[in-house]
Design a protein that fits this description.
The complex is a heterodimer of chains A (388) and B (293).
Chain A: H1 2-19, E1 44-49, H2 56-66, E2 69-74, H3 78-86, E3 98-102, H4 103-111, E4 140-141, E5 144-145, E6 147-154, E7 156-160, E8 183-186, H5 191-202, H6 216-230, E9 233-237, H7 240-248, E10 254-257, H8 259-267, E11 272-275, E12 281-290, H9 297-307, H10 310-320, E13 323-324, H11 330-336, H12 340-343, H13 350-354, E14 356-358, H14 376-387
Parallel strand pairs in A: 1-2, 1-3, 8-9, 8-10, 12-14
Antiparallel strand pairs in A: 3-12, 4-5, 6-12, 6-13, 7-10, 7-11
Chain B: H1 2-13, H2 15-44, E1 48-49, E2 56-57, H3 63-69, H4 74-107, H5 110-121, H6 128-139, H7 144-151, H8 163-187, H9 191-199, H10 204-232, H11 236-241, H12 249-260, H13 263-286, H14 289-292
Antiparallel strand pairs in B: 1-2
Classes of the chains: A alpha/beta (388), B mainly alpha (293).
């Protein structure tokens, strides 16, 4: 069985290498040398992480168990993660082992040749994952895994329950002049997908089927919607703390957010609520990806194995305010905080995930045989023009 | 002994050798660190980046400059905003700094002057980021400003997250950089000039216009180099207190490099402030600012 599977991987890799000439997957290190077992830890592990993604509350035990001492480099944005991975000649520069990339960065790292394939069979929890996170498009290209999914969260609609009445049910609230000067959205090109998602439902004539695969006319429609939205905004938020401040101070009453900010505001007793509107929502899903030039691959595999176990998944979810990809974490979450499994939607049926459109880097390939979709460069340029 | 002797006599016979030896390290540092960075910036602005992999393509192209000029005016608007706010901040600081610097230099006693100096420089002891965040809380909807306005029966100012907020914050954070050179220039005006002006029949206002102002102007221009260039290159303040149309050149540069490693486009845009500052410094030199630094 294994031999056949490896054969498949080889073919897939070869195809991937042909499709992406600059990716350099075939440059001698990757293809034949997927490890078949995890060796002894090298004593050190260098992570590029979202703050608290290797929180001491669960990482210390890993250090004790494996002897892999963790060195953390916190990143503030997806862009910073990509930039860090590309320093020192790319591939993590021989310095970093793993990066906790979100879906808007992961394909960029794969196509840029900064990460290497992993043998997913070495991560036992993977088989238990919610099926959408086993081989998602943002970290698996043509059947080749470039890392292991770890946690996810939806991009929700937050509003001040005292000032926004009636309670919104649609993303239309963020495009309505009713809340002019009181709206905030993230300063991130991937936000174009949120407009596309809204248009997908409100303007079916555009024929949008995937908010990350937009042809020129669909893209232009989303961009022009966002240009109108700009006039209604108080500000674009850059850091989670900025949005928390603006909402807590009353400068903003409604906006696009992550559950993290909602939980932080509710903890401060600010009267806010968040919903997934009827159009559905975009969402981020994070992947621990293995750097091409990882100096400590065994420690990296040990870490990927460790963080996906149910107990650790549960701890991380509560620390960060996000949802595990491993449903076995549910009872452990409830043990830490009663009712948290339901609060973070981990008990939802598979149909729930159909409403979430996970971030992925836009590429020219539309998925329908055509190659006329707008790529991430175009998204970023358009975003610069919208916000500029 | 013999070697040292020979060396010192060699220096004595060839004076240029000593000068060369003294100047080589700083000059090398200047050329390598400073000029080389500027040159590589300028050169890379003619390259492009592979959209797919984010890798640099080392082929000459004018595309970046073309995009700068032809993107529905976006980048011209951003450059205009950056330069406009930098100019507004400079004028504001000059107007605010002059009376204070004049008072410190010519009217205040020694103790008061020392106290004022400490007060002017005190904010510089704290992080600039902390001071921006402080303004964020002052200007916010529930902040000290609106609270005070409401107390005296006025409506909310709604300044948070606007270009007005940026103007206020920039004017605040760079003010000390204007006060100090103006103070130095005013202090250097000899008392005898002002007495002579009075002896010749000029009243206070005439003396100020014809003697003090022209002699203090180089100080103002010197200070303006700081306030203008510091504002021109900033990208933190727009992020933290700016509104929905507050991007500066620095923000675009940061976004383009951060998001897809588009160093060439960023370099092309970064040449704009370089050119603006070069022109500014040429004018400043004409106005004698470098003697006042």
């Amino acid at each position: 069985m294994r031999r056949i599977r490896r054969g498949h991987v080889l073919i897939a890799l070869f195809t991937a290498a042909l499709c992406v000439p600059a990716a350099g997957v075939g440059s001698g290190t990757a293809t034949g040398s997927l490890p078949t077992k995890i060796g002894k830890g090298e004593g050190s592990l260098n992570l590029i992480e979202w703050p608290a993604y290797a929180d001491k509350s669960f990482a210390n035990k890993f250090v004790q168990q494996t002897g892999c001492k963790i060195h953390r480099k916190d990143a503030g944005s997806s862009n910073q993660m990509v930039a860090l991975m590309r320093t020192g000649g790319g591939g993590g520069g021989g310095q970093y082992d793993l990066v906790s990339a979100s879906g808007d960065a992961s394909l960029r790292l794969i196509l840029g040749g900064d990460v290497q394939p992993v043998n997913i069979n070495l991560i036992p929890s993977w088989k238990k994952f919610v099926s959408v996170f086993k081989s998602p498009a943002h970290n698996t290209v043509k059947g080749v895994h470039y890392g292991v999914s770890v946690q996810w969260g939806p991009n929700t609609l937050i509003y001040n329950t005292k000032r926004v009445k009636p309670a919104p049910t649609s993303w239309a609230a963020l495009y309505s002049s009713k809340y002019k000067g009181k709206i905030t959205v993230p300063n991130n090109p991937i936000q174009i997908a949120d407009a596309a998602l809204y248009l997908m439902k409100s303007k079916p004539s555009l024929g949008i089927t995937d908010p990350y695969e937009l042809n020129k006319s669909q893209f232009d429609a989303a961009v022009s919607l966002l240009k109108q939205q700009k006039k209604l905004l108080k500000r674009y938020w850059n850091y989670a703390a900025d949005e928390i401040t603006s909402i807590a101070n009353g400068d903003v009453t409604i906006g696009a957010t992550w559950p993290y900010q909602t939980l932080a505001l509710q903890a401060k007793h600010v009267p806010v609520k968040e919903i997934i509107p009827r159009e559905g929502a975009t969402g981020w899903a994070d992947t621990w990806m293995l750097a091409k030039k990882a100096p400590h691959p065994n420690c990296a595999y040990l870490w990927m194995k460790y963080v996906t176990t149910p107990q650790v998944e549960a701890k991380q979810a509560i620390v960060f305010g996000e949802t595990p990809v491993n449903p076995k974490a549910c009872p452990f979450m409830n043990k830490i905080q009663a009712g948290s499994c339901a609060k973070y939607h981990l008990n939802q049926p598979l149909s729930y995930y159909n409403r979430i459109h996970f971030w992925k880097t836009p590429v020219p390939d539309c998925g329908n045989g055509k190659k006329d979709c707008m790529d991430y460069n175009a998204w970023q340029k358009a975003w610069a023009q919208i916000t500029g | 002994m013999g070697a040292r002797h020979r060396l010192s006599s060699a220096f004595w016979r060839r004076p240029w050798l000593k000068a060369a030896l003294l100047l080589t390290p700083p000059l090398a540092a200047f050329v390598l660190v400073y000029l080389a960075a500027l040159v590589s910036l300028f050169v890379s602005s003619f390259w492009s980046v592979d959209a797919f992999t984010g890798k640099l393509i080392h082929q000459w192209t004018l595309q970046n400059f073309h995009d700068l000029l032809h993107s529905n005016g976006t980048y011209l608007r951003i450059a205009g905003r950056t330069i406009g706010i930098a100019a507004a901040v400079t004028i504001t600081d000059a107007v605010l700094a002059f009376p204070l610097a004049y008072f410190m230099a010519r009217l205040a006693g020694r103790r008061v002057r020392a106290l004022l100096f400490v007060l002017v420089l005190l904010p510089l002891w704290s992080s600039y980021l902390v001071r921006i965040y402080a303004w964020q809380t002052i200007l916010s909807h529930n902040g000290a400003l609106n609270w005070s306005l409401n107390k005296i029966g006025l409506p909310d100012a709604n300044l948070a997250y606007t270009n007005w907020a940026m103007w206020i914050v920039f004017s605040y954070v760079w003010l000390p950089f204007m006060i100090i050179p103006v103070f130095a220039a005013v202090e250097r005006i000899p008392d005898s000039f002002i007495e002579a002006s009075g002896d010749l029949g000029a009243r206070g206002r005439r003396t100020f216009r014809s003697v003090v102002l022209p002699l203090a102007l180089p100080g103002v221009v010197a200070g303006s180099i700081f306030t203008f260039s510091l504002t021109l290159g900033d990208f933190i303040t727009p992020l933290l207190v700016g509104g929905n149309s507050s991007s500066f050149i620095g923000n675009v540069v940061e976004d383009f490099i951060g998001i897809n490693g588009n160093i060439p486009f960023s370099a092309a845009f970064a040449t704009v402030p370089v050119i603006v500052m070069a022109a500014y410094l040429l004018i400043a030199r004409k106005l004698g600012a470098f003697e006042a630094l």
